[in-house]
């Protein structure tokens, strides 16, 4: 899948596509059904399938950092998920003051008509766009009739009689319901980042950890988890196959026992000891073991981690299919 960063990078090969527009945070199973509909339409007419999205997300631009919702996927994870669903191109529009002030009619003209020259567009019935969210489905319908592209309205997708949404998945993760969250995502929730040098306290108590740099410290879950870890490879322009997943234990939080203040992700791999510094790891959260807790001593912390390892090994022993 090709990543197109901004309108100025659109070339003739990108034009004449079937497209959809949205945040696609999480690329959950509701999103996936929208993407599949666009992909089928594109395939029928031998056109590229295109997803139009934004970076940062509009709500992140308008809301203070402490009020903006937590992300389910950063751009890298979004790219990965879209590529796995056979999208040919991802157009990422930088959401800045200029785009926020663009009128709905100018957005249609610059992005859809002059830019991508869309031949088919699929959006939700509640899709709003342009300055002050003035653009709506009726405006797109008029534009489709004027400029000769077809327009389709996506359906609302539900699971157990409730709408599938990124907000619903965030609440499930916050509540520790990783199984239902995985069902709605169509995969396990994951974080990824580079392994950096830490304080190496884990080595002193017999549990060496990989300290992973996080792009954001505002996350929808905290605690200790059984995880699967893969050593990632570059994914832009081509999607490569990572190595086999490795079982482990992850602590996601601020490490209160050592008076930590910054949210970090530390992973202890079971039965694996190779040097991982500088590698990019992708951590899938499979099972919640416990809350993060402040212990009175390193001995108490060491005992808790040993118990966490026992719990994780027992869980993996009964869930080998994961």
In a nutshell, what does this entry contain?
By secondary structure, the chain is of the alpha/beta class. The protein has helices at about 30-45, 60, 75-85, 95-100, 105-115, 135-145, 165-175, 180-185, 200-205, 300-320; strands spanning about 1-5, 20, 50-55, 90-95, 120-125, 150-155, 160, 160-165, 190-195, 210, 225-230, 245-255, 265-270, 280-290.
Helices and strands, with pairings:
Layout: E1 2-5, E2 18-21, H1 29-44, E3 49-55, H2 58-62, H3 75-83, E4 89-94, H4 97-100, H5 104-115, E5 120-124, H6 137-147, E6 150-154, E7 158-159, E8 162-163, H7 166-174, H8 178-185, E9 190-196, H9 201-204, E10 210-212, E11 223-231, E12 246-253, E13 264-269, E14 280-290, H10 298-318
Parallel strand pairs: 1-4, 2-3, 2-5, 3-4, 5-6
Antiparallel strand pairs: 7-8, 9-10, 9-14, 10-13, 11-12, 11-14, 12-13
Helix pairs in contact: 5-6, 7-8
CATH C-level class of the largest domain is Alpha Beta
Structural class: alpha/beta
Instruction: Report how far the terminal alpha carbons are from each other.
Output: 27 Å
Strand content: 15-25%
CATH architecture of the largest domain: 3-Layer(aba) Sandwich
Q: How many individual β-strands?
A: 14
Task: Note the main sheet.
Answer: 6 strands, parallel
Rg over CA atoms, rounded to whole Å, is 22 Å
CATH superfamily of the largest domain, please?
HUPs
Q: Return the average pLDDT rounded to an integer.
A: 89
Reported by name, the CATH topology of the largest domain is Rossmann fold
- Number of domains in the coordinates? 2
Describe this structure in words.
This protein is an alpha/beta fold and 322 residues long. It folds into 2 domains: 2-159, HUPs (Rossmann fold), CATH 3.40.50; 189-318, Beta Barrel (Elongation Factor Tu (Ef-tu), domain 3), CATH 2.40.30. 31% of the residues lie in helices and 25% in strands. Strands 1-4-3-2-5-6 form a 6-stranded parallel β-sheet, with helices on both faces. A 6-stranded antiparallel beta barrel has the order 9-10-13-12-11-14. Helix 7 packs antiparallel against helix 8 (178-185). The radius of gyration is 22 Å and the shape is elongated. It starts with a strand and ends with a helix.
């Amino acid at each position: 899948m090709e990543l197109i960063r901004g309108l100025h990078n659109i070339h003739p090969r990108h034009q004449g596509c079937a497209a959809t527009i949205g945040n696609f945070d999480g690329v959950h199973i509701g999103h996936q059904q929208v993407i599949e509909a666009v992909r089928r339409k594109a395939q029928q007419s031998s056109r590229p399938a295109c997803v139009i999205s934004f970076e940062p997300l509009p709500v992140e631009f308008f809301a203070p950092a402490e009020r903006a919702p937590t992300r389910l996927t950063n751009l890298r994870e979004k790219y990965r998920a879209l590529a796995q669903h056979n999208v040919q191109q991802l157009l990422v529009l930088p959401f800045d003051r200029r785009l926020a002030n663009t009128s709905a009619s100018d957005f249609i003209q610059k992005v859809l008509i002059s830019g991508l020259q869309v031949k088919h567009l699929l959006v939700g019935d509640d899709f709003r766009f342009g300055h002050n969210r003035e653009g709506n489905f009726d405006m797109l319908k008029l534009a489709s009739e004027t400029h000769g592209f077809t327009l389709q309205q996506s359906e609302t997708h539900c699971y157990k009689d409730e709408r599938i949404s990124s907000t619903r998945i965030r609440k499930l993760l916050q509540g520790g319901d990783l199984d239902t969250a995985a069902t709605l995502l169509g995969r396990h929730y994951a974080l990824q980042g580079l392994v950096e040098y830490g304080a190496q306290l884990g080595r002193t108590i017999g549990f060496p950890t990989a300290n992973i740099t996080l792009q954001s410290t505002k996350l929808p879950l905290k605690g200790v988890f059984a995880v699967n870890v893969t050593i990632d490879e570059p994914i832009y322009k081509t999607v490569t196959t990572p190595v086999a997943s490795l079982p482990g234990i992850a602590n996601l939080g601020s490490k209160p026992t050592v008076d930590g203040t910054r949210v970090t992700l530390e992973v202890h791999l079971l039965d694996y000891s190779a040097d991982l510094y500088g590698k990019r790891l992708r951590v899938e959260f499979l099972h919640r073991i416990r809350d993060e807790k402040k212990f009175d001593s390193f001995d108490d912390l060491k005992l808790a981690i040993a118990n966490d390892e026992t719990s994780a090994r027992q869980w993996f022993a009964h869930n080998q299919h994961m």
